[in-house]
Design a protein that fits this description.
The protein is globular and about 50 Å long. It has a 5-stranded parallel sheet, sandwiched between helices. The protein has helices spanning about 15-25, 45-55, 75-80, 90-110, 130-135, 145-155; strands at about 5-10, 30-35, 65-70, 85-90, 115-120. It has one domain (about 5-125): Rossmann fold (3-Layer(aba) Sandwich), CATH 3.40.50.620. The protein has 6 helices and 5 strands. About 40% of the residues lie in helices and about 20% in strands. It has about 170 residues and is α/β, with parallel strands linked by helices.
């Protein structure tokens, strides 16, 4: 059984994340999408909201599980008996940070590999922070996130946004 962890903040999950998770589900027997409980970041959505949203949008994938974790991703990978950590690369600027994390993780636990997938070109500009910024000003995020996330963003920003309809 080959298991991979797809870790992230997922605040919120975007179509870019879903592309990587879907492709990971083709390669590995089991994918664990793991929401990091980072005490430093100030998220828009709570951990429970992010987990629930991910469970909702990934319900059609029988070999994908959604969970949350605290601490180091690599320790969580060992705990879950995963062979690898999957990360998506969008742009060259992602590389430096991901390279640093992959080498640090390898130093910590050499049995766990980090595997990278290049994002689809048409999704390469999408980030959770850009999605939140657009949504906070009432911009349309329909092509950037799944419908459930668009709905949840509308609820979060309902006090001062005017979303495009139709
Ligand atoms: O979606 P994000 O915010 O880019 O995800 C980053 C995440 C959560 C994958 C990364 O920060 C992480 O693995 N955090 C857990 C702590 C850890 O293992 N840090 C890396 C040590 S080099």
């Amino acid at each position: 059984m080959r298991t991979v962890i797809c870790p992230g903040s997922f605040d919120p999950v975007t179509n870019g994340h879903l592309d990587i998770i879907g492709r990971a589900a083709h390669i590995f027997d089991k994918v664990i999408v793991a929401v990091s409980r980072n005490p430093v970041k100030q998220p828009l959505f709570t951990i429970q909201e992010r987990v629930d949203i991910l469970k909702g949008v990934l319900a059609g994938y029988p070999n994908v599980e959604v969970d949350s974790f605290s601490g180091l991703t690599v320790n969580y990978a060992v705990e879950r008996k995963a062979q690898a950590i999957m990360k998506g690369l969008r742009v060259i600027s992602d590389f430096e940070n991901e390279f640093r994390m992959a080498l640090t993780n390898k130093k910590l636990v050499c049995e766990v590999e980090t595997v990278f997938l290049m994002t689809k070109a048409e999704l390469s500009f999408i980030s959770s922070s850009a999605v939140k910024e657009v949504a906070s000003y009432g911009g349309c995020v329909r092509e950037l996130v799944p419908p459930l996330v668009e709905q949840k963003l509308k609820e979060k920003f309902k006090d001062y946004r005017v979303f495009e309809e139709g």
